[in-house]
Sequence to fold (112 residues):
Amino acid sequence: MTTSRPFLLLVAAPLAFTAVVGAAIFGHQALSANQMDSDIQQAIAAELGTSSSVELSQLQEVQYGYGVCGLYQTADSDKGLASFFYDTTNRRLVLDVNSRAYTSNCGLSSVC
Fold:
């Protein structure tokens, strides 16, 4: 004699579990990316010694996500955008575009 299991245990419970795990993974990724932006903004403000807000643009992950290249501008600056490189593993900021860390990670050859 065959036994039948309820629909809830065979279909609904695995689908609900999969949805919860997926939401947790993608939610964590979204929050992590937002936290990284604020870490970069705080590092730039501390490096420049300013208390004004910092706007980030043209962010690009490099080194398989272990670094971020992009442009920034402070709210009180009359200059245009400036470049930066942020090492996410060491939490190190590089603002000098002629430095080795910047050119090896954010140079034109790394984009192509």
Helices lie at 7-48, 100-106, 108-111. The first helix runs from residue 7 to 48. The mean pLDDT is 79. Residues 47 and 93 are 8 Å apart (CA to CA).
